[in-house]
Design goal:
single chain; alpha+beta; 2 domains; two-stranded antiparallel ribbon; disordered C terminus; phosphoprotein
């Protein structure tokens, strides 16, 4: 409020100072003429401040300056000797308004014509010289510079605010990536172990020597199932974000085969019917560590899903290599009765995360449900291709 009041009072004060100085220094100007020139400046001030168009202040100033300089109101001498300090000050204000508010080419043209016209009027009382032109152009130039400084400062503030917001967004994105990665790792590293606990507990309950042991095993299975359900609810509130894949010397087909065989052995040990079919077990084939990890996690995911949705079905795992691609297939028959208790603990996070992992390394996931079976296929690129064969694995049927 005080700033707006000062902006209104200052031009009126300058007009009054111009009138008083003209009367005191020149002396021969009449009071009526003095008041007439002062009123021209006051009316022009009101119009310049009140008219919202960016070019309006300079147009009004040109008219007011021409009236003071050429109209027969007795102000010609005061104008010629530079006592009308209101004029250059308002030229600075008018140019600043023009530069800061111009929006179109038409406004630029009108404003530029007004500035040029004003400079012509200012240099007209005396012979035209370079110094005179520069002196006349000084107020508009200072106004333009002031407006540009204001705009640059505003742009700098906006830039700083944008950078601060961008930093906040980046921090939020990093936190979201970390949170989602934790969720994905939680699923990959915990779920299959929890399912194994359920199977071990149920196996113990089926072969327990007494009722208390069987009841305790059933309670363990129920608690593990409840934990899986709660973890499913948590995972549904997040989305997995996978890290960029990295590569190294790779993993051989034989090593990958041993890891898959180890998974099969562990699952069979807890009573889960898992068999290993034909696989590629050769040192001539190599996969990146990322691709091998994707396949191992895919095997875990397929086995765990089968245990959740079809615990009585036999899971068949097989692999083959063809055309620079390694393919693992995990297949099991679909359940025929009511869904088992573990079926409701699935969140779908594992398959979504597995799909993203495979896509990051140029692979693909294919899920097929039909004809009484569920089939999960994971295809990833290899580093060194092997013949298009499926080599029989150990007898783990």
């Amino acid at each position: 409020m005080e700033r707006d009041r000062l902006k209104l009072l200052l031009p009126f004060a300058l007009a009054t100072v111009s009138a008083v100085a003209s009367k005191l220094i020149l002396g021969d100007i009449a009071v009526v003429q003095l008041i007439g020139g002062w009123l021209i400046q006051v009316v022009a001030t009101v119009l310049m401040i009140g008219w919202r168009r960016s070019w309006a202040p300079m147009v009004v100033l040109v008219a007011a300056t021409a009236a003071i300089a050429f109209a027969p109101i007795g102000w010609q001498q005061a104008f010629a000797v530079g006592l009308t300090i209101w004029i250059p000050c308002m030229a600075t204000y008018g140019t600043a308004r023009l530069v800061s508010g111009v929006r179109s080419r038409i406004e630029i043209g009108i404003g530029a014509a007004a500035v040029v016209g004003w400079i012509v009027i200012m240099v007209s009382p005396a012979p035209v010289t370079l110094l005179g032109v520069l002196a006349a152009a000084a107020p508009p130039l200072s106004g333009a510079c002031a407006a540009l400084v204001v705009r640059l400062r505003a742009a700098r503030r906006d830039r700083i605010a944008w950078l601060a917001k961008e930093r906040e967004l980046q921090a939020d994105r990093r936190a979201a990536v970390e949170r989602e990665q934790i969720a994905a790792d939680l699923h990959d590293l915990v779920t299959h172990q929890m399912v194994r606990i359920v199977f071990q507990a149920r196996n113990l309950a089926d072969h327990a020597a007494d009722q208390p042991t069987s009841a305790a095993a059933d309670e363990i299975a129920g608690t593990a199932t409840l934990a899986l359900t709660q973890m499913r609810d948590f995972l549904r509130s997040t989305r997995s974000t996978e890290p960029e894949p990295t590569d190294d010397t790779g993993v051989s087909g034989a090593e990958l085969h041993r890891q898959i065989a180890s998974i099969v052995t562990d699952e069979r040990a807890v009573g889960h019917p898992v068999s290993l079919g034909s696989t590629v077990a050769t040192d001539d084939l190599r996969l990146s560590s990322t691709a091998a990890g994707c396949l191992i996690r895919g095997v875990h995911e397929g086995v765990v899903n089968a245990a959740k949705h079809a615990p009585e079905s036999t899971v068949m795992i097989s692999s083959s290599a063809d055309g620079g691609q390694y393919l693992i297939t995990i297949e099991n028959s679909l359940p025929t009765g009511s869904p088992p208790a573990l079926a409701v603990t699935g969140s779908g996070t594992g398959l979504r995360g597995l799909t993203r992992r495979a896509a990051l390394i140029g692979g693909a996931i294919d899920v097929h449900r039909g004809e009484g079976s569920f089939r999960l296929r994971i295809r990833v690129p290899v580093l060194e291709p092997a013949p298009a064969v499926g080599v029989a694995g150990p007898d783990l049927r």
